[in-house]
Amino acid sequence: MSCNYFGKKILILGMGLTGISCINFFLKKGIRPKIIDESIHPVNFFKIPKNIEYSLGNLENKWILESDLIIISPGISSFRPILIKARLLGIEIISDIELFSREANFPIISITGTNGKSTVATIIKKIAQNAGYKACLGGNIGFPVLDMLDKKANLYIIELSSFQLENTFSLKSKIAVILNISEDHINRYPKGFQQYKKTKISIYNKAEICITNSNDKLNDLLYIKNKNWISFGTRKSDYYICYENKDTFLFYKNKKILNTNEILLYGHHNYNNVLVSIAISDAMRFPRNYTINTLKSFSGLPHRLQIIKNKKGINWINDSKSTNVNSTEVALKSIKTKGTIRLLLGGDSKSGNFNILKNDFEKLKIKIYCFGKDGIKLSKICKKKSIYVQNLKNAMILILKQVKSGDTVLLSPGCSSLDQFSNFEERGNLFIKLIKEMT
């Protein structure tokens, strides 16, 4: 369903990778959009073609209210007063995902969730490719989705954040999945967690097959009828995890599929990621043997509970992708050690409720090194086990003086990295660099 954008005044908000992909999309159609970025020195400024009009340093620009169509980058809040005003004037505001949805001619697997999106999306791409598909992965990971339209693909896998779903209305997924929903980005949503949850659930609106986590108890889904629902997570689900003696098995309707001893990923959250990957693959009718063989060889993604070094009895784990409190909680539950867990926690907490970690902190043999923008606040959750340090490097210097054989040093910050880093990868890479230099 390709749309005609000729004769429209088109404005792009944000000069990140998404914004650049939107410019290229319109230029290929012979249309010249305008673009605004709030930064005075956006890093991608050099990628802007010379014939494109731009404005830097402020979003409050008359171009917004003069536009017919605005494409908003996920980093910009939809709830800015000037954008609310634009909507009231009848100006259409959409995401790049919406543009992509109007153009895509092949099946789409859409994956969202608070945690685990990138892992599951990457597994599905590998299984699809092994099953003979020309699968392309983009969205919140890899390529901006519009760049995928130029690839020789016959299956699109898109990882979606709630920000991308806010202004997406035409997405017709072959399969739509919500892996899990817990509190994240609450500072972005004026009406709090319920609004965040409602945004996530919108992924199911036009989907053919809906895969849902039974643990989330999404009663809101009852309003979406005539859908093909597949569930995972609890014993009453279609797909579930079962513990027998010392082994953990993945099941589909009372049939054993896989012993988790046969896969390289570890931790209950990863078993859930594998479980939902099987559910998606079965729904796509990928041959089961391709699915199982791919899962047995998949070793995980960088910055996600990635073991960097195990030397002198000390385990160093990089979980920099942990950008919300729930992911830190999951990481702590995955650590098996007789020594002390030395947790690096901090950054921008995005108004998350970190008090849910208090019980874990009190029970565990743990020392917490809190850093960054909300480090002082986080250090007050469990004062007797916490210390505030200004940044990650200072925390590592302190840890090296205190760490002993048997300990696990875990970078699982639970916060956005943007107060002190460009992204979570830069944070994780600094951690790895410091380990290599200091140990």
Automatic annotation (TrEMBL):
Compartments in which it is found: Cytoplasm
Name assigned to this protein: UDP-N-acetylmuramoylalanine--D-glutamate ligase
Gene Ontology cellular component list: cytoplasm
Gene3D superfamilies from the UniProt entry: Mur ligase, C-terminal domain (3.90.190.20), Mur-like, catalytic domain (3.40.1190.10), NAD(P)-binding Rossmann-like Domain (3.40.50.720)
InterPro entries: Mur-like_cat_sf, Mur_ligase_C, Mur_ligase_C_dom_sf, Mur_ligase_cen, MurD
Reactions performed catalytically: UDP-N-acetyl-alpha-D-muramoyl-L-alanine + D-glutamate + ATP = UDP-N-acetyl-alpha-D-muramoyl-L-alanyl-D-glutamate + ADP + phosphate + H(+)
Membrane spanning stretches: 6-27
Pfam families according to UniProt: Mur_ligase_C, Mur_ligase_M, MurD-like_N
Residues binding ATP, per UniProt: G113, T114, N115, G116, K117, S118, T119
Domain Mur ligase central intervals: 111-280
Ranges of residues in domain Mur ligase C-terminal: 303-413
Keywords for this protein: ATP-binding, Cell cycle, Cell division, Cell shape, Cell wall biogenesis/degradation, Cytoplasm, Ligase, Membrane, Nucleotide-binding, Peptidoglycan synthesis, Transmembrane, Transmembrane helix
Function: Cell wall formation. Catalyzes the addition of glutamate to the nucleotide precursor UDP-N-acetylmuramoyl-L-alanine (UMA).
Major place of residence: cytoplasm
Organism: Buchnera aphidicola str. Ak (Acyrthosiphon kondoi)
Assigned EC number: 6.3.2.9
GO molecular-function terms, A-Z: ATP binding; UDP-N-acetylmuramoylalanine-D-glutamate ligase activity
GO biological process: cell division; cell wall organization; peptidoglycan biosynthetic process; regulation of cell shape
Pathway assigned to this chain's UniProt record: Cell wall biogenesis; peptidoglycan biosynthesis
Family: Belongs to the MurCDEF family.
